[in-house]
Write a structure and sequence with these properties.
The structure is a homodimer of 131-residue chains. Chain A has two helices and eight strands. By secondary structure, chain A is α+β, with helices and mostly antiparallel strands. Chain A has one domain: Phosphoribosyl-AMP cyclohydrolase (Ubiquitin-like (UB roll), Roll), CATH 3.10.20. Chain A is globular, with a radius of gyration of 17 Å.
Chain lengths: 131, 131
C-alpha cells in the first residue's frame, strides 16, 4: 500500500492497530465515564492493553517499576472499563471508566491527578491547588 | 534533598517543574473547556510550552515534522487557553481550551481525534465510529 492508503486505513478503518512507541508503550488518558473528568494519564504496553480488554478492568504499565500494574490492586481504586477509544493515528488511547473503591485515581489521595493549575503573574509561574 | 522530599515538593509544591522526557517532550491532553470533552493528545517541548503560556494560544511540537506547531495556523482551529494543569508527578499536562474556527480539533475534520471506540465480539476486535 502507498503511504497515503496506509494512513487512510489507519484513520478511517475499523482495524484496531494501536501504535506503540520505541519503548513498546502507548499513552492512555483515563476519564471518569459519568463526568468525563480527566483522572490520570498513564501508559500501556501490549500486555496491559490485552489485560484491560480481556478483563474489563484497567491495567497499565508502570514505567518506574517496569511492571504490569492492575490499577487498584493496593488502593482498591479498581477502574471498570466503560469504553476504550483510539485517536486518529492510533498512538493514544482514551479510557472511560467507573472508578471503584473511594472513587479516587491519584496516589496522593485526590480524585484526579490534575489538581494544580498554572498561574502567571508578571511572568512568574506558580501552581495553584484547585482541589 | 532526599528522594522523599524531592517527591513531596514535586507533588505538593507550587513550583511548576514540568518533566520532559528523553526527547525533550511532555504529553498534553487537550480538552474543550466548556464541555470537558477530550479533543486530542499532543506533545510540547519547552519552546511550545513557553509559547503557549506567553501567547495564551496552544502550541505543540510536531513529532512527525519536528517543528513547532501553532495549532490552527493552517486550519483556523486556534485553541485559546482557558487553563493549564499539571499532574501529580508533573510529567503530563492538561490544557482546557476554547476552540476557534469551526470548533474542531482533528485534521480528519472531526471535533475530537477520539472518534472510534473498540468493540469486541468473540475475541475479535474492531473499531466502531461514534461520530
Amino acid at each position: 500500500m502507498s503511504a497515503h492508503s496506509d494512513e487512510q486505513a489507519l484513520e478511517e478503518g475499523s482495524s484496531f492497530a494501536p501504535k506503540f512507541d520505541a519503548n513498546g508503550l502507548i499513552v492512555c488518558v483515563t476519564v471518569e465515564a459519568a463526568t468525563r473528568e480527566v483522572l490520570m494519564v498513564a501508559y500501556m504496553n501490549q500486555l496491559a492493553l490485552d489485560k484491560t480488554i480481556e478483563t474489563g478492568v484497567a491495567h497499565y504499565w508502570s514505567r518506574s517499576r517496569q511492571s504490569l500494574w492492575r490499577k487498584g490492586d493496593t488502593s482498591g481504586q479498581v477502574q471498570k472499563v466503560v469504553s476504550l477509544s483510539v485517536d486518529c493515528d492510533q498512538d493514544a488511547l482514551l479510557l472511560a471508566v467507573e472508578p471503584g473503591g473511594d472513587g479516587k485515581a491519584c496516589h496522593t489521595g485526590r480524585k484526579s491527578c490534575f489538581y494544580r493549575t498554572l498561574e502567571t503573574e508578571d511572568g512568574a509561574r506558580r501552581l495553584v491547588f484547585r482541589s
